[in-house]
Amino acid sequence: MSDMPERRMIDMLHTNATVDRRDLVSLRELIRGRTLHPGDEGFEEAGSGWLLTVEHRPAVVVVAADADDVAAAVRFAAEAGFPVAVQSTGHGKSVPADGAVFIATGQLRELSVDPRARTARIGAGLRWGEVLAAAAEHGLAPLCGSSAQVGVMGYLTGGGLPLTGRTYGFAADHVRSLDIVTADGLLRTVSPAQEPDLFWAVRGGKSNFGVVVAAEIELLPLRTVYGGELWYPGEDPTHAAHVLGSYLAWAKEQPEEMSSSVTLMRLPDAPQLPEEFRGRSFIQIRVVYTGGEEQGARLVEPLRALGPEDKDNCAALPYTQITEIYQDPRNPVSAHLRSALLRELDDEAVAELVSFIDPSNSGGPFPGIELRHLGGALNRPPGRPHAVSTQGAAFHLWLRMPAPAERAEAARTAADEVLERLRPWDTGAMLPGFLFDHDSAPERVRRAYTEASHQRLSTLKATYDPNQLFRINHNIPPSGPGTS
Ligand SMILES: Cc1cc2nc3c(=O)[nH]c(=O)nc-3n(C[C@H](O)[C@H](O)[C@H](O)COP(=O)(O)OP(=O)(O)OC[C@H]3O[C@@H](n4cnc5c(N)ncnc54)[C@H](O)[C@@H]3O)c2cc1C
Hints:
Bound molecules: flavin-adenine dinucleotide
Radius of gyration: 23 Å
Number of domains: 3
Structural class: alpha+beta
CATH class of the largest domain: Alpha Beta
Oligomer: single chain
Number of helices: 14
Distance between the termini: 35 Å
Shape: globular
């Protein structure tokens, strides 16, 4: 930290027992970046983000310019008794950051690639699209997920389920070190050699252990993949069951180089949709193959034989275009997002899933019931252990229900119904990276970890954040000696 803010901070903390608005305003003097208060221009915007269903009303927003700003904000909050919230893009909002010191990381824009070491150093304000582009200049690739807009640090601290996950495992497996500001305001570098317990915990523990300001990750020598999407008509339940059942049988036989997903869709008859999609049901299969074009095309042949509607764009494509296979929405959305980890799916599961997109059934629309195929490297212990695990699941289910204010309750009810009807195949486990606002209760957060990992995380929370400074998140309460 530079001298001036540090000294000012210490003076301030020694002279103020309680904090009032004047003290909050004085936080501005500690911060090189911007400090925004309710009513300030930019306050609303800095605290908003991609997922519109959660609204934050922080006490103050700190738009950090560097790691020193993050440390100063954390120390200020700790001394003054404010919780700390951290946000990059707002794709993974969980708990409203009301009354918090809200650290916006968007200006932490460090990005460098070491082509010889095949690594990248990435600041907490970067999105995957930016890292994809920088790595590609050297023929290298990061393990990103389906959206180029998702923030690097929210994704990595949630484990990171990449589109090539069956080949390479979780993105967290490929993190070499993290720079993190912990609740004591210290900036630490954690790695397998330095504070390995904390390094383990942050990869999966999200913001429970501090604010990550930068990460060093491994890159892969991957210029192209074979991939794309195939769409099948989904209105006829017999045909839909045949397509889905055939996909599941196909997926089981695939080598680890093949990662894939299937999405069931029953779209509303809405004028904003292109005419050919209105009121229709589809099954959409997406594939990403890391083993070469020729072999990829051969492996996809059985899916082509199932007769996709004219949309089949599987081909060799530059790795920089990998997220275009998914085409996640770029603009902010009001959505109700839910997830689950499922075991192997049998014929009864197929019938249940297909019933959601059968137009003769009531309910819906169900525009996005996605099943991502797990296994391969995802289900093996990682080389650099972390707190994330599929817990042996075969598929990751992700439900995305549009939830504008007037449909919010209906979206929740519909999502509840899907999950209830799939309960026989639900392992009860979840991935930390796919917890959203519905999942903030401790019993739901617990599902994202094995019992042993949750216990270890709680013990480490008691060491690194016993006073729960970082509680505006999917919270892991501290446990162990000295906690109740
Ligand atoms: C459209 C979409 C597609 C997605 N695709 C995938 C996918 O393919 N694979 C996958 O694994 N996940 C995926 N996700 C989930 C995504 O990884 C999480 O929602 C992630 O938390 C988003 O991170 P963010 O920084 O963009 O969001 P934010 O809302 O800014 O952050 C979410 C949370 O991450 C934590 N966090 C953020 N920054 C920091 C930091 N610097 N230090 C410590 N903690 C921090 C905080 O707890 C914060 O509340 C997707 C999400 C969406 C909405």
